[in-house]
Amino acid sequence: MKTIIEPFKIKSVEPIRFTTREERIKILEEAGYNPFLIHADDVIIDLLTDSGTSAMSAKQWAGIMEGDEAYAGSKSFFRFESAVRDLTGDKFIIPTHQGRAAEKILFSIVGGEGKYVPNNTHFDTTRANVEFSGAEAVDLVCEVGKHPEQRADFKGDMDVEKLIKFIEETGVENIPLVMITVTNNSGGGQPVSMQNIKDVRAVCDKYGLPLFFDACRFAENAFFIKKREKGYENKSVKEICQEMFSYGDGSTMSAKKDALVNIGGFLTLNNEELAMKCRNLLIVTEGFPTYGGLAGRDLEALAQGLEEIVDENYLTYRIRSTEYLGEKLIDAGVPIIEPPGGHAIYIDAKRFLPNVPANQFPGQAITNELYIVGGVRAVEIGSVMFGKYDENGNHVAPPMELVRMAIPRRVYTQSHIDYVLEVILEVYENRDKLKGYEFTYEAPMLRHFTAKFKPI
Ligand SMILES: *Cc1c(COP(=O)(O)O)cnc(C)c1O
C-alpha cells in the first residue's frame, strides 16, 4: 500500500515561530509551569485541543464572503438547516454558538433536581450542564473502556446491562433522556458501535425514553464503524451517519469538532413541544432562531464543513495520522491508551513515570517536558484537572493520569507528526530524570486553567 497522503494542497500558510530550548525553559517558568498560560505564539506544535482549531477549506472561506447577515430568515440559515437535516433527519434544527450552549438549553429544560442522565461518558461541559440544572450525570461506559492497556474495537460502547439496571433502579420518570457520546471523548476518543447504538435504542423503546447523541465527532465514529464493524464496509460514511442519527430523537453538537469550523454548534430535536421550549430559551440566551449566536457567515462555513467532513479521503487521512503517531509510540514502548482513538493520543502517565506519585502530578511533568524539549503543547488530564481533597486535606486522585495530545483537523502534515514523535521519544528516553510538581497557586474550581506550579 502507498503512503496515505494529506488529501489537500496548502494555499495559505501560517508561519511557525521557533524558539530555543533555553527560551522555552524561561517561558515555562514565567507561565508558572502551566502550558495553558503560555502564549500560543511561543508554541511550535499546538496539540492542546482539536476544538475550534481546524483549518477551513477554500470553499468554507468563500462561504464566509457569501454569508447572509440578515437578522431573520437568512439564506445561510437555510443552507445550514438543510445540511444538518440531510445528516440527522431531525425535524427541528437550532443553531448555537458552541456545543455547551446547546447542552445548556437542553438540560435547563429536561434536567433539574431529582433527575438522572445516563451517558457512556459525559464530556466535562455536558456533565457541568447536567449538574448545573440540579440533575445527576451518570457514566455507564463498558468495562473494557476503563482499561487503557486493553485493546478493543469499540471501547466507547455503553454497558447495556448496566443501563437497564440503572433505569430499573432509578425509575423511568426520573430519567429525561439517555445520551451517547460519539466518539467517547473523555474515554480516549474511542468509538461506539452501531450494534451498541441499536441495543441502546431498543432499551429506550422498551422504557419509552428519548435517545440523544452528543454528536461532536459523529464522522470519525462512522469511519471507525465502516472500518471495524461487519456489514458496514461497503456503506458510505454519510449513510452510516444517517443510520446512526435515525436511531436518535435529537443531538447536541459542537461544530468546532466535526464541522470543521472555528466556532459554532447546534441542537437538533424531533419532539415539537420540546423544540418550542428550546427555541424560546434560545431567544433569551443565544439569539433569534435563525442565527442562534452565530453570524450568517459562520452558518455558511458550518454547512460547508458538514459536507466536507464525510469525505472518506479526508477521514482516511485523519484517522491514519492519529493511528500513525499511536503505532510508532507503541512500537517504541511508550504507554498510551490502546488502540489510538480518533482525535487524540493519550499517554498513560502512570506507566510512563511510575516513580512520580499522583500527588506530584506525573502528567504535568510529562506535559512540561514535551514543551521544553520540542515546544509541543499537550494537556494533562489527571490529578491536576480532576484531583480532589478529602476531609483531611489528602489528595484523592482520579482513576487515570493521562497526557492528551489532540490533533487539529487539516492543520499539520506528516512531518509535523514525525517531529512530535521525536520529541515524545526523547522525553521517554530521559524519563528517569523527570521530577514531579507542587502547586504554588490553586483556584477553587477548574484549577487546571490557572494553576501555578514549582518543580519538586
Ligand atoms: C467539545 C465537546 C463538547 C462541548 O462543545 P463546545 O463547543 O466546546 O462548547 C461537548 N461534548 C463533547 C464530546 C465535546 O468534545
Q: Could you explain how this protein is built, in words?
A:
Helix content is 41%, strand content 13%. Strand 3 (116-119), helix 5 (124-132) and strand 4 form a beta-alpha-beta unit. It is an alpha/beta fold. It has 2 domains: 21-50 and 312-455, Aspartate Aminotransferase, domain 1 (Alpha-Beta Complex), CATH 3.90.1150; 58-308, Aspartate Aminotransferase, domain 2 (3-Layer(aba) Sandwich), CATH 3.40.640. The protein has 16 helices and 16 strands. The chain is globular and about 60 Å long. The site of pyridoxal-5'-phosphate (PLP) has 15 residues, from helix 4 and helix 5.
Itemize the secondary structure elements and their pairings.
Elements: H1 21-30, E1 45-46, H2 58-66, H3 75-88, E2 92-96, H4 99-110, E3 116-119, H5 124-132, E4 136-139, H6 160-170, E5 178-181, H7 194-207, E6 211-214, H8 218-228, H9 237-246, E7 250-254, E8 265-269, H10 272-285, H11 296-309, H12 312-331, E9 344-348, H13 349-352, H14 362-374, E10 376-377, E11 379-381, H15 383-386, E12 388-389, E13 395-396, E14 402-406, H16 414-429, E15 437-441, E16 452-455
Parallel strand pairs: 1-10, 3-4, 5-6, 6-7
Antiparallel strand pairs: 2-8, 7-8, 9-14, 11-14, 12-13, 15-16
